[in-house]
Predict the 3D structure of the following.
Amino acid sequence: MSENLYALFASRFPADRSEPCFVPPEGPAISYGELEAGTGRIAALLRAKGVKPGDRIAVQAPKSPQMVMLYLATLQVGAAFLPLNTAYTAAEIEYFLNDAEPVLFVRDAAEIADEAQALESLAEITPRAASDLAAILYTSGTTGRSKGAMLSHGNLAANALALHEAWGFTHEDVLLHALPIFHVHGLFVALHCSLLSGGPMLWLDKFDEAKVIAALPRATVMMGVPTFYVRLLADPAFTREAAGGMRLFISGSAPLLESTFAEFEARTGQRILERYGMSEAAIITTNPLHGARVPGSVGFPLPGVSLRVGGGAEVGVLEIKGPSVFSGYWRMPEKTAEEFTADGYFITGDVGRVDADGRVWISGRAKDLIISGGFNVYPKEVELILDELAGVVESAVIGAPHPDFGEAVVAIVVGRSDEASIISGARERLAAFKAPKKVVFVTELPRNTMGKVQKNRLRETYAGLFAPVPS
C-alpha cells in the first residue's frame, strides 16, 4: 500500500469535487476538482521533464493556488518539495541550489501551470513508503550554515492527522489562510488541516488586517503568527462581533505575549490557542481545544510525541521523539549525529520546562542563553518582567560582550519609558545579575517573515555596547 502523502489528501477530498477549495477575496473560487486536475497536469509536466522519485524541486514563488498544485504534483510523482522564502537573496538561493541540487527551480508557479495546461491530467500517484523523502526545509542559518531538514511522507502525514484531530477540524470548517506557504506553518500546518477536512480556504495572498476582518464572518478557523493578532487588535474594526462566528484562533511560529493573549480575550471573548513547533518536527505541542489554554504555555505534547528536559534538570534543553520528527539534515550526517541523543531523541535547542500537569513552557533558545558573571540568564524570563512594566510595548533581551562579566544583559525595548525606570523595575522582580545593565530604545524589533525576533541581528548591532574606553 502506498503511503504517498498526496494519496492521503486525495482520499479526503469531498465526493462532490465541485465544492470550493480556494476562495479568494475577489474572483472565482477554485474547486477541489480543479485542484485535482491542475495537480495532475503539473504532475504530467514534471514527468515529461524527466523528474523521477527522489529528485528535488526547489520553489521560490509568490503564494498562489498554482504553487499548492505544484507542491501536490511534486508529491504525486514522488519527488521532494523544497520551498524557499521569497525574501531570500540571490546569494542565499545559490547556496540552497548548490546544496540540494534540485532538478528544477521554479520562480513562477502560474507559468508552470500554464505550460501544463495542454497536457492530460496524470491520475497515477507514485507509490511511496512512509520513510521516503517528501520535503526539505532549510533552517534560518542564524548560527551558521543553513541546514536542510528532511521530512518524510510519514512525518508529514502523522503530524497532519494528529493536528486535524487535536483541533477538531471537520468538513464544515472554513480556514482563513493568510500565511506564507514557504514555511511549516502555512504549508504543512494550515494547508494540510484544510485538505484533510475537504473544506474551503479563504485564500489571501498575504496578511492584510482589513481583508482579514472582512473575511472573518465567513471563516471558522484562523492560524497566524503573534504579529497578526497584534495588528488586528490595533484596528478598531476588529470587534467582538467581527470575530463572533469563529470557533478557533491559533497562534505559533513565535512566542505570544501574555498581554496580547489577555487583550485578545477581553476584545473577543475567545482565548487564542498557542502551540509549539519547528522545521525539524512540524508541531510538537498544543494547548487543548477543550480545557484551559494557559497564557505563556505551549500546552501538551501531541499524541505519540515523547518530550523531556535534557539532563534530567528542571529547566533545560527540550528533547523530543515521535512520528513527525525528521530523519536528519540533508547531506550532513555529522551534524545529524550531533543533534540526536544515543537513545534517539532530537535535541531541539529550545530551553524549557514541563510542569506538574505536563504542560510545556518555553524559556528561549539555548543559543540565546546569556552567561553573565558565571550565572545563567534566560532572556524569556527577563522579557516577561519587562513587558509588564509601564510604557513597555515589547522587549527583546540579549547578551552583549562585557569586559568584566563576559556578557552583560541588554534590553532592546519598544515603548515610552526611560532606562532608569526599566532597570529599577526589573531589579524589583529579578536577581541583580538578571536585570539589564543597559536599555536601548527602538521603534520596532527586527523580525523574520514568520514574526520571530532576529536576536542574532540585535547581537551583531550591539556587540560593541560595552567596548572598553581607550586609555
